Amino acid sequence: MKSINFLIAGVGGQGTILSSDILSEVGMEAGFDAKKSDILGLAVRGGSVCSHVRWGDSVGSPMSMPGTVDYLIGCEPLETLRMLEYLKPSAAIICNDYRMPPMTVSTGKAEYPSEQAVEKRLASMAKRVIHYDATSAAQALGTAKAMNIMLLGTLSTLLDVDVGVWERVIEKYVPARFADLNSKAFYAGRDQAK
Amino acid sequence: MKALLSGNEAIARGAYEAGAQVVTGYPGTPSSEIIKVIAERYGQDIYTEWSTNEKVAMDAAAGAAYAGKRTMLTTKQVGMNVLSDALLYTVYTGAEAGLVVVTADDPGLFSSQNEQDNRWYSRLAKIPTFEPSDSQEAKDFIKAAFELSELFDTTVLLRSVMRVSHCKSVVELGERSENTKQLARFPRNIEKYNCTAIYAKKMHLALEERIRRIAEYAESIPVNRIEWRERKLGIITSGVVYAYVKDVFPDASVLKLGMTYPLPERMIRTFAEGVDELLVIEELDPVIEEQISAMGVKVVGKALFPPCYELLPDRLMEIGVGAGLIPADRLPKKQTLADDVALPTRSLLFCAGCPHRSTYYNLANKFDVPVAGDIGCYNLGCQEPFRMQHTMGAMGASIGVLHGMSIAGLAERGVCTIGDSTFFHSGLGALANMVHNHGKGVVIIMDNGNTAMTGHQDSPSTNWQVTHMREGVKIEIEAVCKAIGVEKVKVVNAFNVKEVENGLRECLAFDGVAVLITRGDCVQINKKPGTQYQIDPAKCTGCHNCLKVGCPSIVVPEEENAMTHKRKCRIDATLCAGCGICAQVCPVKAIHPKEGAKA
Questions:
Q1: Is beta strand B464-465 parallel, antiparallel or unpaired with respect to B470-471?
Q2: How many Cβ atoms from other residues are within 10 Å of residue B174's Cβ?
Q3: What one-character DSSP code corresponds to residue B300?
Q4: Which of B250, B334, B554 lies closest to A85 in CB terms?
């Protein structure tokens, strides 16, 4: 059974669920069977979160097995690192460089891996890595919250789905007053892949 | 028309299509979105309410179903313990219209205090039970549940789990069917609806007879089906595990049980006889396995598949390979990491701008008291940097545990922390008990004006009714406490750290039951932007006292400053909500509002 498997990792509050909503609906609109799984509830308060999305002819489990994921969208470097065992060697990673140190780091009990260490490990686990500071780039457009849409823009360049589908689905899911801003963020994300 | 729906959205849709007219419940992950979705999308056709607790919701659901309305109740798994007293009488009485209880269980404990398997309630209450595998089934099974409820005059249980409720999959939508039977008046039928012993004796006989008839019905209900493939291995499974089994054991024959109580014994025997080796794969307890074993059918279940946590596909695959049921080369190859850089853990934190922060800062840094805790966002007070809430077990438990501390006769005075919604859920009775029995201690009611953790539902302490987008009747907590007989009731502003400290001191000095209400709106509800704060590096001494408030917006630089050899914090402008609590605890007044920066 052929499927395309995605993982979206981040910190609760970064908008990973909106991303997985959009990504799974894009899959359905593109003609696939699509399933997704999120973690909600208490875990959203600043903890590690991750969403699975799967597209395929007929998807069984909503969650992917380690070693089977094609695309990892990381909204935060440390959270991206946590998910690497899910990746196939042929996978692509799209990672936001904006670091959110956890309390264990702030209180000096643990160290955040250096930028070099992050980059090295990402490169060793995937065929392609695209990383940039999407939070600051989205902030420059008007709000840091559009970071997740920007990363989806980057992802869209790697998938064979008409860009009009992405536009329609994003418009459906983001509040109307932020539609323009998110559209800008989406295209800024597409430019990052060039 | 098809749509991508979560299991909870699909359950809501199922209630709509089944012609439900009343839905009640108390919020709890992973069930909370069902009522929210019904209120938002189908509120014209269905009355919804957030009741004060699950038992109240169940009694109200019973009353509505007795009055002839198709009625549904939603709860998380532990809420079943609260409502079970009411559930059990409804199984005796039946109703005038369909009555369906939805429980969303939490294998894996994503947001719960335990991992209980509510399928035991099916057997305890003798309540027919459906278990959907995905969103399409979640919707279809709600309709089947209402049909069965009316066909056999019984309450019906639908058991979801987090991976059904919070996963999305494609659903074919249908139309609403109206319940045409409408009663003009409430039934006066004492023999049917009054469970006094003389009538209840007959009801029990009828129940036993009914469950035998439903077991017969289960033999032919389409939700139970055999999928014959290779006969070497046969797997009996239900719920979301069915989706995993299809991925992991694609060649095995499968008996898929959509209805897991009562079981279709003949179908199980036919399946067992048709395969060489028989497995039951079920998450948590051996509920199906034990019943099949009791039929004298040889089956392997918990000997291979452990009772703790989810049985996700990778875990099933590893177990299957280990037991020689799957060729080892089917296991997806995991890449190995090339380096050994350790990853720091990320514990949960109160949101930036949370009103609970000041209470735990004070308890952790200004006092040395035992803290009985309760269920809500504030249980994060048990995490770093506070390490408070020394106990936590069930909704409303904190006040009773505090009372227990005081009657145990220890010399030290204790406190408990409980939220406004939890207080109305099951704290009221405990507070009355404490007053009546001369308890001593400080009950801190952390009033943020809503049921925050589960998604900002209303409670009696809220002045709005979220399911109807209208004003709600707000009940003043301080007035209730005084009316119960609490002599010392103090209200403080939760965003004023010193005021909370003084209030706590005053209450701890009181010899009896004192209530301290720390009041402040949940930052996720009150979106009025405050002015963001910043740290003046010229004044900051790098003492890190601000870290003691545990705010996600305060960031310590990874490297020491080469000149000062200090790691002076900064405030992340994408996170700061402008509450100013950090500024109040800074000993050198280095934190101040940023000109013109709204959060």
A1: antiparallel
A2: 15
A3: B
A4: B334
How far is Cα A17 from Cα A10, in angstroms, rounded to an integer? 10
Can you tell me the distance from the alpha carbon of B31 to that of B201, in angstroms, rounded to the nearest whole number? 35
Cβ neighbours for B513, distance < 8 A, ≥ 6 positions apart: B431, B434, B435, B439, B440, B441, B443, B486, B487, B488
Please name the residues between 556 and 585 in chain B that touch chain A, using a CB distance below 8 Å. Answer: 556, 558, 572, 574
Indicate the DSSP class of residue B457: B
Contact A40, B108 (CB under 8 A): no
Interface with chain B: mutation pick from A63, A97, A111, A135, highest number of B CBs within 10 Å: A63
Whether residues A62 and B351 touch (CB distance < 8 A) is answered with no
pTM of structure: 0.96
A55 φ, ψ (degrees, to nearest 5):
-115, 145
Chain A residue with Cα closest to B108: A39
Among B140, B162, B175, CA closest to B8: B162
Q: Do the strands A69-74 and A87-96 form a parallel or antiparallel pair, or are they unpaired?
A: parallel
pLDDT in tens, chain B (599 residues): 999 999 999 999 999 999 999 999 999 999 999 999 999 999 999 999 999 999 999 999 999 999 999 999 999 999 999 999 999 999 999 999 999 999 999 999 988 999 999 999 999 999 999 999 999 999 999 999 999 999 999 999 999 999 999 999 999 999 999 877 889 999 999 999 999 999 999 999 999 999 999 999 999 999 999 999 999 999 999 999 999 999 999 999 999 999 999 999 999 999 999 999 999 999 999 999 999 999 999 999 999 999 999 999 999 999 999 999 999 999 999 999 988 899 999 888 899 999 999 999 999 999 999 999 999 999 999 988 999 999 999 999 999 999 999 999 999 999 999 999 999 999 999 999 999 999 999 999 999 999 998 989 999 999 888 888 888 899 999 999 999 999 999 999 999 999 999 999 999 999 999 999 999 999 988 766 679 999 999 999 999 999 999 998 998 887 788 888 888 999 988 789 999 999 999 999 999 999 866 66
* Residues B389, B371 contacting (CB under 8 angstroms): yes
Under DSSP, is residue A126 helix (H, G, I), strand (E, B) or coil?
coil
Instruction: For residues A192 and B320, give the distance between their C-alpha atoms in angstroms, rounded to a whole number.
Output: 43
